[in-house]
């Protein structure tokens, strides 16, 4: 009887051990499998976020080259808010004849699937006076004045159109540079729209020595895009920041690469940006491509942004090549820092 009882106890003990062992093994397996699945998912999310980060940074670099009129990016950095969400930011500034003037940051928030939100890049545009068609543009974030270019082709097309009801009213070309004579001891920024497109070499010879060429505007090929609609969609190149107004030839950039620079970089970027942005059914990148030349030597531009002392900028409206001038940022001259020009 005693032996039977002991035997039953042994059997129960062994069963309990096996049961506990089974639970332990199952638990360990669950932890291992769960951990492996979590690791795999986490790794995949990390890969997708890295791809999106690279994609957004590449787009920032393209925008810095082709669509940042006298706007210079000084830094780029990521700020992760969630495992599946991050924000890319770019600190920016303007070069006003050697003075660095703060400009609102650019940012884009993205997840594993793409962009969630981005800072607005188009300016606010409104009439200076309800009685006129003269327009003024300001930055949405800082309320700084933004320099505007005018589409000469649209102005001519509007004037020659018999049924003007079919077109948006043409904006009156502004001549704001001359008003800067009233502003002493100040540096300013002026967008000059030429009466026609000029070559790179001609422009450098045309511009007075006492102003700094900061940006070359490619212009607009289409005669269907009015001045107001084109604001914020300018295509062009920033010049060197040393006051010489020079551009570089650069090199062709293959798809997937991220080193865009110079005139050839602009050409490559426009080819790769086709279909990315349309305004009034006009593909901005394709419109830009139609105005590109083989190289910088034969390149032509429709306008420039120049900076300098206000008394020098005020004379730009008297130049024979000037179709319109539009003022951007102004900043006081400080006694401890001499302007470049």
Automatic annotation (TrEMBL):
The chain crosses the membrane at residues 19-41. The keyword Transmembrane applies. The keyword Transmembrane applies. Keywords: Membrane, Transmembrane, Transmembrane helix. Residues 180-328 form the Sigma factor regulator C-terminal domain. Residues 9-101 form the Sigma factor regulator N-terminal domain. This is Sigma factor regulator C-terminal domain-containing protein.
